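Why does residue order matter? Because the sequence determines the fold. Keep that principle in mind as you read this record.
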Amino acid sequence: MSVLKRAKTWEISESEGESDAETQPSIKCIAFTDQGDDNNETATANSPTDGLEQDNKDHNTDCKSTAKTEPSDTLVAPRPARSGTASPGRKRRTKVEIEADRQRVEERKEAREKLKRVRAEEKEERREDQQRRKEAAERQKSLRPDNCLKCLTVCIDPALLQDDGSDVLLGTLSAVEWRSSIETQQLPHSITWTRDLPPEKDSSGPLEEEQVLLVLGLTDFMGMVVSVKQTLHGNGEESAVESFFKLLSECLNRDAKMAVTVLVMGSNANSWTGTWDVPELSQRSQLGMEDLDIEEVLVFLQLYRNITVVFLDSWQDVTDHVCAVTKALSKRPYKLLTERCELPFCVDGSWASGVRVERDGAGLGEVWSRQITQLNRVSPAVASTLTTAYPSPQILLQESPQLSSSIPSILQKLCWNLSRLTSAVPMPTIYIEDKTYNKGGNLAQVQHVVLILSGKGGVGKSTLTTELALALRHAGKKVGILDVDLCGPSIPRMLSVGKPEVHQCDSGWVPVYTDAQKSLALMSIGFLLEDPDEAVVWRGPKKTALIGQFVSDVAWGELDVLLVDTPPGTSDEHLAVLENLKKQHKVDGAILITTPQAVSTGDVRREITFCKKTGLRILGIVENMSGFVCPHCSECSNIFSKGGGEELAKLTGSVYLGSVPLDPLLTTSIEEGKDFIQTFPDSATFSAINSIAQTLLTSIQNP
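Structure:
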């Protein structure tokens, strides 16, 4: 029995040829393909006939052959439709598109190569920068004084070793482990220095320093003085006395940068202030020399030949001088590296070696004082006395004919030297008005300037500055407060002035006034900060510049007292405010704030030393937090120790202005920004502060 399988979809195709037996009904072969099978299956079916079985077999055979030879007559199942979106037909690219794709690939490749090169260059630059930094650090390290000291060699002329005292010099150099060598020098009896250069620098040998020390005995020096004197007044004739001046002049002509210092050994200090020993007097008389001749030679050597003369007593003094010069030479390379000209405001007359002269003539008095010191070999105190009496050399020359013959010899020599130096140039006549000289500026109308100092922080310095200012204002005085505590400006908070804007006028900054009567003015860095919590992270030069601007550029107007609140300790701020104030105004003195504890009084001792070194008058010592005032019974209890400030004043010979207790009412007034003097006029703390203020007024008005 034949089985016919039905496909899911199928077609019937008729054969073009017809069978030979057209009259016999038959069903043509059906060929189909099942989608579920991998192999094609063909099935045939015949309808039953009345013929024999043999005829059926022949008919089946014919059907199979027909299915093989006539494919068009078979039924073929179509391909099933694919699920999803049909993929579009592949489009063939043109040459232009292929070339564009190739160019894009090349560009991406070049970009990757370029990025790779850039990264490699940046890496190399970072490596080179690190190497440069490392080399710079090594160079800077090699320039430090302790390393430079190892590269210096002290060269001593053999002629100096003939003196028995030279063993002191050699022994000292050996003890400190400094290198020294015995070498014949161009200038006999001299000491020079050589410096070994780093290996990377091309050099033929060690570098010779410019500093030269010429060690002479008193006899040799007097011979050189005679030689110089005869050269100056002998119309070019050769000196009859053999001396070192000729050799010294030849060396200076060959090397103009040479800095020569003549050490005259064997002379005591009294020899150059007017008192001479008998042997020295006989030697001077034999040479025909006078004091004026020697001073003339010294001035000539210093001004015209750049030769400094130093008088020493023994070889020990010579050794100390050699050690000092050696240390200075070891510090020179690092000093030249660190000192730049980027901060011109630091180059001031009091800091630099010279004197700064302004366009208005400020500084000429200091020049005149130094000239007196150099011409007459006098002390700075004597020179200061002369400049006070005669503010300029022109005034001294104008009044010299009217001076009596009994004037001191120093003044006679000074007039004689000035007449010689100014004989070629006529001196202008100066007319002096009988009035007090005032330097002017924004401090011209300020009567008194007082500094508030403390050795420690937290002793109540700003609190007492504020309360003293309020007490002076209630006494009818116009008071100003300059807050130079740049890192901790607290006075604006204590006076409850908020953060007003600082305006400018023609004279500079206008201070902030705390009242309508403008009796209390204030200037602080707290007004210039955008954020009150902002920290002032500045170095010394920047602080110094701002303090100088505060002193010179604040238009204070008329003030009876200007109180300057300073930070604790002795730092750049103190030096800056003191130097800038002294340029424009007289500083009346300073008040020192302390607490009773020994730790605080010990720091105030150092503050007293600072005042003495800077010439600042100590107006008095105030002891703050001296006991605790009970808010209920007003009894004072000594929480800390007692009497530390008063005892310190007795030991140091200072004035004890008084003590201020630790009062809760004062603390509350400061926290709330109220005027304690006006709010609690009957309190014991008010009496103490008012007494200190009155003592201060008396002290500055009657110095």
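The chain has a mean pLDDT of 74.
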